[in-house]
Amino acid sequence: MTQTPVLGVAVIGAGYWGPNLARNFAASPDWNLVAICDLDEARARSLAGRVGGVDVVGSVDELLTRPDVDAVAIATPARTHYPLAMEALRAGKHVVVEKPIADSVAAAQEMVDEASSRGLVLMTDHTFCYTPAVVKIRELITSGELGDILFVDSVRINLGLVQPDVDVFWDLAPHDLSILDFVLPGGLAVESVAAHGADPIGAGKACVGHLVLPLAGGALASVHVNWLSPTKVRTITIGGSRKTLIWDDLNPIQRLTVFDRGVSLENASAEMLGRAEQSAAKVSYRLGDTWSPALPEREALGAMVAELAAAIREKRAPLTDGEAGLRVLSVLERASGVLEGSKA
Amino acid sequence: MTQTPVLGVAVIGAGYWGPNLARNFAASPDWNLVAICDLDEARARSLAGRVGGVDVVGSVDELLTRPDVDAVAIATPARTHYPLAMEALRAGKHVVVEKPIADSVAAAQEMVDEASSRGLVLMTDHTFCYTPAVVKIRELITSGELGDILFVDSVRINLGLVQPDVDVFWDLAPHDLSILDFVLPGGLAVESVAAHGADPIGAGKACVGHLVLPLAGGALASVHVNWLSPTKVRTITIGGSRKTLIWDDLNPIQRLTVFDRGVSLENASAEMLGRAEQSAAKVSYRLGDTWSPALPEREALGAMVAELAAAIREKRAPLTDGEAGLRVLSVLERASGVLEGSKA
Amino acid sequence: MTQTPVLGVAVIGAGYWGPNLARNFAASPDWNLVAICDLDEARARSLAGRVGGVDVVGSVDELLTRPDVDAVAIATPARTHYPLAMEALRAGKHVVVEKPIADSVAAAQEMVDEASSRGLVLMTDHTFCYTPAVVKIRELITSGELGDILFVDSVRINLGLVQPDVDVFWDLAPHDLSILDFVLPGGLAVESVAAHGADPIGAGKACVGHLVLPLAGGALASVHVNWLSPTKVRTITIGGSRKTLIWDDLNPIQRLTVFDRGVSLENASAEMLGRAEQSAAKVSYRLGDTWSPALPEREALGAMVAELAAAIREKRAPLTDGEAGLRVLSVLERASGVLEGSKA
Amino acid sequence: MTQTPVLGVAVIGAGYWGPNLARNFAASPDWNLVAICDLDEARARSLAGRVGGVDVVGSVDELLTRPDVDAVAIATPARTHYPLAMEALRAGKHVVVEKPIADSVAAAQEMVDEASSRGLVLMTDHTFCYTPAVVKIRELITSGELGDILFVDSVRINLGLVQPDVDVFWDLAPHDLSILDFVLPGGLAVESVAAHGADPIGAGKACVGHLVLPLAGGALASVHVNWLSPTKVRTITIGGSRKTLIWDDLNPIQRLTVFDRGVSLENASAEMLGRAEQSAAKVSYRLGDTWSPALPEREALGAMVAELAAAIREKRAPLTDGEAGLRVLSVLERASGVLEGSKA
User: Fold this and answer.
1) Which CATH number fits domain D7-126+300-321: 3.90.550.10, 3.40.1280.10, 3.90.180.10, 3.40.50.720?
2) Considering only alpha carbons, which residue of chain A is nearest residue D158?
3) pLDDT (tens digit, 9 = 90+) per residue, D81-138?
4) Is the CB of residue B268 less than 8 Å away from at least one CB of chain D?
5) Which listed CATH number (1.20.120.450, 3.30.360.10, 3.40.640.10, 3.30.230.80) goes with C129-297?
6) Is D253 in CB contact (< 8 Å) with chain A?
7) Which residues face B195 on adjacent strands?
8) C184: how many CB neighbours lie within 10 A of its CB?
9) In sequence order, what DSSP letters do the residues of D98-113 get, joined into one string?
10) How many of the other CB atoms lie within 10 Å of CB of D145?
11) Whole-model pTM?
């Protein structure tokens, strides 16, 4: 086998998510984790020790001058993503950034443009997209096994921690939206965004929410998020003209189920009929087999860091690139606008 | 015990639902089923034979002149509910009518007014409200066991027959709405109606739909209906400030589950705080016992005909009166208006 | 198509099961239901009316002289199966008999011999064997898809009516045993029968029971029956060297599931190794896809009466012949012997 | 509060289970972990480092002379439990030993006698007995809430690693047996042991097994263990005369469910009736509520080390004492004898 040169990476931010990134970069054959950078040097030092004694760098400026750093992974609070990513890109570094990619669509667009003009990789860490189940869902849709997408229902509810800084949409829906962006052909290209939220406990922000997103071709996606549910549900149903799948992330025995069931009109004739006649056209039902593919056991972040390395080497966009982060952010921002508008 | 005189009833319409009504009236100690009336006399005769040989009457006019008919049960197509009910009320008969109560809110309002001015009972046959599970849910809410209602989510999806005359909202949501009207304190008093529908198979009508209904006190109800789902789901979750319940109508082992779990702010202080401070107030979680009450085995329609008799005798409104039918119809009509508007 | 002459059948016994037989014979294109015979003539007349007005015959002797009766279906108490079946066979009639085929193995053996010597069909009505799920299980095993059978576990427990005349083994296990006899290659050929029962409520008979049956090739079958269980379970797991299946008769969404999972030794080498070495041999695991075949909706008894007609026409043994009834009865009789012996 | 002197403990064996014991002793306010002892000093040193730098002692003799060691925890291979425990007891140390307590009933009995004669605590580490669910089950039985025990069914099956040194009974059944010993009034006092095993893959030892254990009062316990099952099941059902419970260890949402359902004879009369009359006596059914108690989140081993400390201080037997280990071992040994006998 030919030997591929190992890339150097530094992790900025040693708080909640940084350690996961550092551990996976350290374990990857593609990467050489060279430094941890955090304003809190003690926290950086502790993390550096746990991943085998890499350098601790107190200043981002200093970090970005290092020639052994090919890429930086940014795991800091959302409002700092834009300045840090821009500085890194301007220093010629590839960047992977925690979601949300930035705190405004405008900022995210600048980041995407900057990376593009410099020929650098800008990746959004949509970790869920690298789980074996979501990778399989993407395959099933891309290969045409599901047919045309008819509807999508995503439910992410549980008895959740009411967050101090974000509402239930910004806390939970990024997971659903990033997955939809990843698996739908053409990504999350929504025509409009409807959002309905409620704050029945007086928390000062939405604790229960519904997003409804019309998709291309007459399909409809809905995302239901709720911090007040007594039971935990994590399911995504994707209905297609040929088959329908249900992903139940809390069912370890049968995480992904594909149903060869559906309703269809007799299409040949439908094209030649007017609206009224169509409703009288023959509807057919399929009640075929159910199938649950075996999924490998694999840590999603490991696949994410491998994809970042591959994108850099092959000079291509990664699967979850800056555009993907921008599309997800755009839906969330429009949802917030709708909610804000409905209060006025 | 004192002897209660038995009431006489006739069933108008011997099609899909009429036989169920006739069978339950015939089996009831409160009622004497005296006649079946249908334009199709052969169908009427067949039904009359199966319930013990009652009279067959070909004309409604003739039926309404009979002094042994105290009440009529109308199980004919929706567009005929209004003229038949009005004629029966004017003839001094009590009326129970299939849902939807009429084909327009205006017509339903006239029916309610007519019955009221004549002191007659007008009942809507919201059969689901008389199932043991729904009766129990009403009790749990009325008694305060759930506390204030925070959110309601109703899901009624399956691989369904695409109906020739109605969309998925009018086909499936009446069940959910009539149940919500029955169990919520004050009935289905919604401030506004949001509706989102899709017709991804080109059926000429919505096959997938979402209703979102803000309730009093900041709560939010949602109803999800879908004819294209590969799996059948019939659940209603009602979240309260004290407890939360889930009704799963397809789980015969544990149809109704009450969770002593929830999220709450420290209320005492919350009243004295502004919005911003509230969000920082202490949130508390309860993770208590789960309980599933035993439910009697009982046919809902049997309880419905008993309630009709009791309402007539006690000269009071039945549990599912004309107003209830009117409230449900009003939500559906407003939903259709929203959908129509969004197409324009 | 060629026209097949319709066969004539009479049902003896109009009690619990007879009406189901009569209804299915009456609805079958293969059969002409000609008479109902019961000591209780009123009961016979009532049943005859419900299936389209066939003859009522008070005496079996008279019935058996009729030339339009090709076969009789015996649905009377178990102790009468032997005399009735023998009389019918001697009169040249084909016979299908409710399970258990007789009340002793000796009597059943005589019935089998009598039918055989006369070239008549003797069938046992093992209805469960004609359900779509069990037919599919048989196919999966016969085709080799499961590989060699390694173990079978059947669980049939619920809060059951304590029967006045039989214990829990005779009440519930015939279902499991008749299914095993039907699906296992070579039928229920057990080497020995272990039975453990308990009567913890003082009912005077076993209410909880376990059967353990060593099968050919080192496999082991167990049957667990229980009248005292708070939950109802109806599952059969059949483990094979290639795949394993679970039949869950109470799960309408996924009644039959086939798992491409299992454990196996490296067989090539195992043959050449001694016992001790084998235990150190490499064990391999498969964790493949899960699959749930679509099953047609079909009444089992309809398939049973069709099989009876086909066996008569093709002059062959039916799928559930007298030998099958004999094998099931033999296991039950041996189990009772073991239980009786353990008390002594 | 009064100050309780902290006890000193050493862990012997730093292999699979030793680290869990060491971690829990180190975290306990009751204990001072003073040393790790293992023949493999590097392994001992590594573990000692991870729990805060305690002493490493290469020889058991040396360890037992230390006055700061009040108790030793033995987590070495089963055949060494007896010599190590006896030496420790003779040195005046309290002992907790991994299960199985010893490799023969005779050896275990000597250990129990030695501890008893010296007034020392001998505990068996039946970890499962300290999980919140099992503690709750014990409470429900002890308080009489379940009534008299009628039957117990334990199922512990999965696609398991075929073990090199033990069969499926010795690998899996100790969990079930130790739990039954803990929760049943009077412990695992079985009258006889029936065991049925099979080795259908030629592994040289039983891979599928059934234990059937008659209990006092006519009840029956069964334990089903299987290494070849495609699905993982961990359930124990305990049927009582008043209520029945099901523990499903793999259902995090509803781990423990109590059913107020059951069958009973009319007892008042039953006492005065003979066996035959009893069977005709009236049977009554209860179909009451279902209830699932909230269970605290707690690590079982933490409760185990607290119980050891409490037993030493209060000079009493711990909940899972040497006798408990002896009873479990006795059932396993008798089961092996039965299996061995059936081969002969």
Assistant:
1) 3.40.50.720
2) A253
3) 999 999 999 999 999 999 999 999 999 999 999 999 999 999 999 999 999 999 999 9
4) no
5) 3.30.360.10
6) yes
7) B211
8) 22
9) ESSS-SSHHHHHHHHH
10) 14
11) 0.91
